[in-house]
Design brief:
Largest sheet: none
Mean pLDDT: 87
Helix content: over 70%
Oligomer: single chain
Distance between the termini: 34 Å
Order of helices and strands: HHH
Number of domains: 1
Strand content: under 5%
Number of strands: 0
Structural class: mainly alpha
Shape: rod-shaped
Length: about 70
């Protein structure tokens, strides 16, 4: 993982804070838009992370390591 990337759990936690803030507070339009934009960016990053994890799991499951252990 690159130093600049925030780990998955931290991104998810930040997204949760954004959602709760937008749901519970009356914010100025500019602040709401900024939080919305940040949330969308985080969602895109999370989707990439999940897709990468899914590919890795598929590779592991299709590798000889898994099939040889079943025998």
């Amino acid at each position: 993982m690159e130093k600049n990337k925030i780990d998955f759990e931290s991104q998810l936690s930040r997204l949760d804070v954004i959602v709760r803030t937008m749901e519970t507070k009356t914010l100025p339009l500019d602040e709401s838009l900024a939080l919305f934009d940040e949330g969308i960016a985080i969602i895109k990053q999370l989707e990439v992370s999940l897709n990468d994890a899914e590919k890795k799991i598929t590779e592991i499951l299709s590798s000889d390591k898994v099939t040889s252990k079943k025998q």
